[in-house]
Amino acid sequence: METILTERSPLGMHESMLLTRAYEEKLAALFAAGNFPMTCSSQGQEASAVGVVRALGPDDQILTNHRSAGHLIARGADPGRMIAEVMGKATGYCGGKSGTLHISVKELGVMLTSTIVGGELSLATGVALSKKMLKQPGIVACFFGDGAACEGIFHESLNLASVWNLPILYVCENNQWQAFVHRRETMVADHLSPRAASYGIASTTVDGNDANAVLKSALAAVEQIRQTGQPYLLETYTYRQKGHISFDDQAHVDPSELAHWLTLDPITRMERHLREIAGFTTGELAALRTKAQERIDAALEFARQSPYPDPSALTTDVYA
Amino acid sequence: MPHITVEQAIGQALIEEMQHDPRVLIFGEGVATTQPHLVQQFGAERVRNTPLAEAIIAGTAVGAAATGLRPVIDMLFAPFLAYAMDAIVNSAGKLRYMSGGQFAFPLVVLAKTGAGWGVGAQHTHNLEAWFVHSPGLKVVMPSTAADFKGLLKSAIRDDNPVLFFNDMTLGHHAGEVEEGEAALVPLGKAVVARPGRDVTLVSYAKGMHACWQAAEMLAAQHIEAELIDLRTLKPLDEETVLASVRKTGRLVVVHEAGPLCGVGSEIAALVAEKAFSALKTPIRRVTSPDVPTPSSHALEQAFLPQAPTVVATVRSLLD
Ligand SMILES: Cc1ncc(C[n+]2csc(CCOP(=O)(O)OP(=O)(O)O)c2C)c(N)n1
Ligand SMILES: [Mg+2]
User: Fold this and answer.
1) Alpha carbon of B270 to those of B126, B237, B242, B244: distances in Å?
2) Is residue B235 reached through a cis peptide bond, with omega within 30 degrees of 0 on the bond before it?
3) A93–chain B nearest CA distance, Å
4) Are A128 and A80 in contact (CB under 8 A)?
């Protein structure tokens, strides 16, 4: 039984970010040690994930992309079943048929993790159309990258959502990188949000490394969508702290750019906030980090103990 | 039983299924404009025009299917499907499996195909094999008015993504067609369209019409051809094909699509693997050549498999 999380306090968001960070660090360490699958790390983007996901309600649907660990964990996904899926175990959310790159969890309203860049933009309109025509409560949140915003489907999706009045929160996580290509090489502007205006869609850009700011912007956007039934584009300006995929050693990354963004690390910033505004002590903050790491240790143990799928599963679930 | 055309059969199937299930909706470029009676009967919500954007038309159908609707999308001409391949192949066909069975994708993709209109290769391309090759999809390609109606109704009721190819040159072809539930034709079942003992002709869509003609010409020469209409290309009704070949010992596959890695190659492989000992002669295929569909009427007719070629191919096996 899965539980959708909607805890919006700074501490609640912080715990989700710590869990995501511990998850990403653990998977990176396992890969580095050898004999563990590759993943696309969302390290550095935890605030963007939790701030948006926690602005949603239980009836809302999520579609996301290959860098989805933060979205899944913020929504309440069990890291044990996530790691099991990454490892191809039968207890994974998709029985080992997804792997790291395509985890969906129907019970949590996560319809899709797409690794076709832009696949989430392609399906989001239909999910929103179902909500509208079947008179189901809730909206659709669609996460995609700055790279996906260069795909034609970005434009087709926004245009249709606007013309058909579909309740979609488009969330462009502008993390400066598109696999091995810097965003500067693929677009002339720094921001994606202005593109929305040409489709008659409201938009804003928010500091994607400040969870409180992301939550505030996302809550306002979600409220507007619920009121008007119209789409909205929220750009979270953030940074991919790790390489595109596990083996990417970031040799091509400008060290000063990376150093700059590390000073804006979303978890360090939230810790500062908790210390200064909420009076947390350094010891308490350290204990929270340890707690998250212990949960991930337990999650990994669960995944390790889990069986692989029976070979007979090879040909099941192809057709309904 | 009413005698109606293929076009009317398709129209009836849509109306009956939209009446049958309120979750069925149809959208595409100009769908609402060209079918005002559907808008009148079912409302503008369920019958929608779309922007000229095949990728998002298909993607929207996939997302809607996963979450409770049962979309039918009209993609117009089959070559336009190239813009929609990602949603159909990577999403509709794969995401049930990739999600470990969490989602189903009940949707129908309509596309016109078939040479004979002189509109050239960017409007005419028999690309059904692309989809037969893609896991998770079903592919339907009927030849008679009754099958157009019955298979479209079944496709709309099926819980999986179905590609429904409509050979546009068959639009005015007419036949006896049932109404309501009696009209249903199951997916995945071929039919013996004409019994015969000497040779098995396997075909579908317009190819069937060339085979009918060929069978009559052969009958005049005292050669009895058995005609198998596949109707559904995926899932393929292997048993009906194999049973016929085991009886006749000879196989000619006829289709309008090109020969390379086509449905005919698959049928040939199937028979070679499972009924080789029944074969008295080599398997033969009659297809279009591996060229884009030409526009000129003269070239287009040369492109299409014609009855005399089918007859000559059968004769070459018997003589
Ligand atoms: C259609 C498609 N093209 C290329 C790729 C290879 N690829 C995977 S992720 C990625 C970069 C995507 O960049 P962006 O959308 O900014 O997301 P990010 O990885 O930065 O989160 C690329 C090119 C792919 N998976 N799908
Ligand atoms: Mg990016």
Assistant:
1) 21, 11, 8, 13
2) yes
3) 8
4) no
Is residue A294 within 8 A of residue A300, CB to CB? The reply is: no
**pLDDT, tens digit, 9 for 90 and up, residues B148-193:** 999 999 999 999 999 999 999 999 999 999 999 999 999 999 999 9
Q: Which domains does chain B have, with CATH numbers?
A: 3-183 (3.40.50.970), 191-318 (3.40.50.920)
In a domain, A278, yes or no: yes
* Ligand 1 atom closest to Cα of residue A115: 25
| Centroid of ligand 2 to alpha carbon of A149 (angstroms) | 9
A82 is a domain residue: no
**pLDDT (tens digit per residue) in A118-143:** 999 999 999 999 999 999 999 999 99
Tell me if A210 sits within 8 A of A266, measured CB to CB: yes
Domain with A247, as residue range(s), is 10-71+105-303
Question: Does any domain span residue A14?
Answer: yes
Active-site residues of B, by number, are 54, 123
Mutation to probe ligand 1, out of A65, A178, A238 (largest number of atoms < 8 A from CB)? A178
| Nearest Cβ partner for B91 among A123, A129, A317 | A123
Average pLDDT, chain B: 97
Distance separating alpha carbons of residues B44 and A118, to the nearest angstrom: 29
Domains in chain A, number: 1
CATH at A238:
3.40.50.970
Does the reported pTM lie above 0.80? yes
- CB contact set of B161 (below 8 Å; sequence gap of 6+): B62, B65, B88, B92, B93, B105, B106, B107, B108, B109, B136, B137, B138
CA distance B79 to chain A (A): 18
Pairing mode, strands B138-140 and B161-167: parallel
Name the stretches of chain B with pLDDT < 70. none
Mutate to test the interface with A, among B31, B56, B234 (most CBs of A within 10 A): B56
Interface predicted TM-score of the whole assembly (ipTM), two decimals: 0.97
